[in-house]
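Progress against Task 2.4 (sequence-to-structure conversion) is shown through the following example record, which the project officer requested during the mid-term review.
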Amino acid sequence: MDDSSYMALAVELAERGVGWVSPNPLVGAVLVKDGCVIGRGWHERCGGLHAERAALADCREDPAGAVLYVTLEPCCHTGRQPPCTEAILAAGIRRVVVGSMDPNPLVAGKGVELLRTHGVEVETGVLREQCDALNPVFFHYIRTKRPYVVMKYAMTLDGKIAAYTGASRWITREAARRHVHEMRHRYRGILAGVGTVLSDDPLLTCRIPGGRDPVRIICDTSLRTPLDSRIVRTADKAETILATCVSDPGRTAPYTDAGCRVWTLPGRGEHVDLPALMDALGAAEIDGVLLEGGGTLNWAMLEAGLVQRVQAYIAPKLLGGAGARSPVEGRGVEAPDQAAHLRKVTVTALGEDFLLEGEVDRDVYGTH
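Structure tokens generated for the chain above:
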């Protein structure tokens, strides 16, 4: 096996941490000596061993003289865990192969430089594209201190998210719906507007075996979420944040008594200030958010420049209806050349449905 093959194995290991490491990155590591893998590791949970130390703990023999393959530059600072560079040097690793460089200002090349200063051979950029693809959430969060936002919706081929009556169950079939729950496990938070709560009374939880529930965040400017809604009734079981402009303790107390966290934020126009909400979520270490809003909230997030990725689940059916809801509403843009464009677009078949997804192109986004 060559460097790329061992790094590919490290990427596979890193993916095992999906849903559990937030706000840390996904990282995998493989130790190789005399052509044999002697240790494997990945960052399993936030606060747990980093991948490099996990691989060393997994070693079946003395790692001195071995090669370490790691998907992200080893850290050289003390956070929830001590520096991985210390463990690498103490183990006598002779060569380190790195996939992605760490944009964290506390690392950002310093880990590689420290290892080289101590005589360790370091090669960077091996399978960089695959390694970078592990951590768009971490990279965005560490640079901006705001969550990476994925706008997700299910629609018909004619662009409807519900019939003209408001009925929306179900637009897509089981395979697509299961994929949505996998995304709810992947991202630390899920964001919806009070309109969605009033119309659908959703749970917004992850319903796959062994999955992790996201933190539920409801944009509710005037605090209209019903106290008997499923969101409030399950707040003692699934972490819930109500983002509102209401500060009256008499209004907020019933929600806090039910187990919700109520964040009183400034308003912008007639709604909660969305950039302020993103700042607050980032400060709470919610690094990634799945936006499952209605057309109004989706447009507001797009207009504010707060969406990084779009996931559109498309069902091959037609609903029609001039008044039927669409996934992005609001004011909209004046002309097609002002639209938000997606790049790196992929289309995946999910049973009879399709998932079209891509990154929002910042170079042409927000020109309106």
